[in-house]
Amino acid sequence: MSQSRFVLFFLKNWFLERLASFCPVPSWRVVFHRWRGVRIGENAYIGYGVIIDRVYPEMVTIEDFAVVADRCIITAHGCGSIPLQHLYPRQVKPVRIGRGAWLSPACIVIMGVEIGELSVIGTGAVVTRSIPPKSVAVGVPAKVIKTLEGGTLLEPGGPAGGGDGSRNRNPSVEGKEHGGE
Ligand SMILES: CC(C)(COP(=O)(O)OP(=O)(O)OC[C@H]1O[C@@H](n2cnc3c(N)ncnc32)[C@H](O)[C@@H]1OP(=O)(O)O)[C@@H](O)C(=O)NCCC(=O)NCCS
To answer: 153 C-alpha to center of ligand 1: Å?
Structure first.
């Protein structure tokens, strides 16, 4: 890319990213991210202050009905500092947020990760490995703690429906409206 094209790309990206970050209309935030190149499906929700790869926005796919809540960071590349680049060269890998998945606020998703459809990522999680569909994952690094099955949350290794049921407070993910932020 020539220098002038790079400057134009940078300015366009910067301007749209700033608009997408604080625009009060959710559907417009989605449109601004799309104009940057992010692949976003229908009825997806993107919160305030979400950072989606500034250099390779086209490497990020957010499928229909997915929710990316406030201040999440999704990055599709990595690059060490100049003295470290022989160990950590620039890498670019696609990221996919599956249909109907829910990223709670302040999650970080790094390059190469796929979040399976209808999965839930807890607040503040750092997702370094792909998460299977219909899973609830939390923590740093994010680990799966529950699976959604037939509209029920199951504890790993627990009986169907999950122990005493105290963990089954979210009995259904079907038809539930996302709360946005
Ligand atoms: C991921 C989430 C949906 C899971 O909810 P849940 O299925 O009801 O799970 P529970 O509250 O029963 O938590 C199960 C375990 O995971 C832990 N946990 C839950 N959320 C966590 C998080 N974000 N980070 C680390 N651990 C978490 C709990 O402490 C609990 O651990 P324990 O078994 O040792 O007690 C919920 O915790 C969450 O993060 N919701 C986001 C809420 C939010 O930020 N809303 C803003 C608007 S989008």
So the answer is: 13
- Domain identity same for 78 and 97: yes
What confidence score (pLDDT) does residue 156 get? Answer: 54
Instruction: Take atom 11 of ligand 1 and give the residue whose Cα is closest.
Output: 167
Residue 167 CB less than 6 A away from ligand 1 = yes
For ligand 1, the distance from its centroid to the CA atom of residue 28, given in whole angstroms, is 29
The pLDDT > 90 percentage for the chain reads 73
Question: Residue 164 is part of which domain span?
Answer: 151-181
Q: Which of 59, 58, 33, 57 is nearest to 46 (CA)?
A: 33
Question: Any idea of the CA torsion for 30, 40, 11, 74, to the nearest 10 degrees?
Answer: 100
Distance 103 CA to ligand 1 centre (A): 12
Prediction pTM value? 0.84
Pair 90, 28 in one domain: yes
